[in-house]
Amino acid sequence: MLFNSSEFIFFFAAFFPLYWLVQKNLHYRNLLILAGSYFFYGSWDWRFLSLILLSTVVDFYCGQAIYRSREHRTKRLFLLISLLTNLGILATFKYLGFFVNSFVDLLHSLGLEANYLTLNIILPVGISFYTFQTLSYTIDIYKGKLKPTHNFTNFAAFVAFFPQLVAGPIERATHLLPQIESSRRVDFQHIREGSFLVLWGLTKKVLIADRLAVYVDVVFADPSGASSAQALLAVLFFTVQIYCDFSGYSDIARGIAKTLGFDLMVNFNTPYFATSIKEFWQRWHISLSTWFRDYVYIPLGGNRAGEAKAKINLMITFLVSGLWHGANYTFVVWGALHAGGHIVESLVKKRFNTNAIPEFAQKFMGTVWTFTFVAFCWIFFRAENLSDAGIIISSISSLVPDFVSGTIPLTIESFIVGMNKADFMLSVYFVLLLFIIDSFLKDRGIESRSTQLALPVRWAFSWFLVLNFLMLSPSDSGSFIYFQF
């Protein structure tokens, strides 16, 4: 059941009136959230509800046992049970086939034959997200940052909360669980702000990401068949597509939650206006980057054990982050590149004195560098394998000599692939519109910025988005990219 589907509209149209009717009874309201969340998730495959239920039961009782235990050894034991259960499920469904195939390839490279059964395990949608969310609960109890809840319904609703269950934001128990356990006031302001977030998220997903996906999919399906200009444009389009697709989901999730009286964390903050790679990760998928910072990088030692150890910890964190995104060497390279870029950037800043450069010039150069680097890294994220990534990079690298020699046709038709001219021009139009709006929203957020606008301007902007949505939506709207993670 996708946010951008008629099925979800019917589901929420039935869910919200019931939610409104039981608003005076917190227990019934949370039971309704839990039932609605299980129905929402079970619409993909009801069998995978057992995995969520298993994680929920294990972490609920482990959390209580950790809190009650007086001996540190016992606390560690129950934390280990939680970690092994959750990460074991995640590893089995997401990585087992990858490691088996990698081991067989290694044996083949050594001249050894290996007979094995290829594992075609279906990846449960959203498993990476709710696994990390429920893990934060037991870890925070172990660290003394959180007291466990004694209400199983409330905890189960926290784990399976349907607006952000499938693709985040990855909420901490310290933030979301208290909201579930307290009465929530739903009024016109919540509905208005939530509806606007949903509209903005659907605009990014349907009007921009889904339209760009047509071009990107054609090029990356056959990289050798694309010209150098088409390869470059496909990379730039994917850079925008993945941002609009993922941040669009987060906006919709936050909007739906807001109509129910919940406040989910901001997951994206105009990341393509970042002036450094470090700043990019403070603006991109914030719930995940802070999760890895708090539960991987800092426990490894962070930057407390010297500069060299800090770089090693950073590399490990980004490599794990890459693997979190998928069981493919392309994601490992993607993570390693971001770690390497982060390290190089810190070394350059330490060695060169930039005080003589005007601040606006530093920001401009930093933004150009960061956007270029991030777009390059997206090649590995999107490519099916390292070979395809190499073909795309090789094709783009030939762009300059081809341009100098005059072998690149500079007509619009020469850039188009997979779509007609009208859709191509609409793609360019929406990309420009996105960056104009994001430049207006930078460091403010769509909700706070919209409330600062005069009422006529706010209504005009909302209707502008609605008209664009009604008149220019593509015929098909696909699944969200991060559902595969």
Describe this entry's structure for a reader.
- With 485 residues, the protein is mostly helical.
- The protein has helices at 6-21, 26-42, 49-68, 72-94, 96-109, 127-142, 152-160, 173-180, 188-221, 228-259, 277-283, 286-300, 307-325, 329-351, 359-382, 386-397, 399-405, 412-415, 421-441, 446-452, 455-472.
- α2 (26-42) packs across α7 and α15 (359-382) packs across α16 (386-397).
- The chain is globular and about 75 Å long.
The count of β-strands is 0
Largest sheet: none
Distance between the termini: 16 Å
Helix run count: 21
Structure summary:
The chain is an all-alpha fold.
Provide the fold topology:
Elements: H1 6-21, H2 26-42, H3 49-68, H4 72-94, H5 96-109, H6 127-142, H7 152-160, H8 173-180, H9 188-221, H10 228-259, H11 277-283, H12 286-300, H13 307-325, H14 329-351, H15 359-382, H16 386-397, H17 399-405, H18 412-415, H19 421-441, H20 446-452, H21 455-472
Helix pairs in contact: 1-2, 2-7, 3-4, 3-6, 3-7, 4-6, 7-8, 9-10, 9-19, 9-21, 10-15, 10-16, 12-13, 13-14, 14-15, 15-16
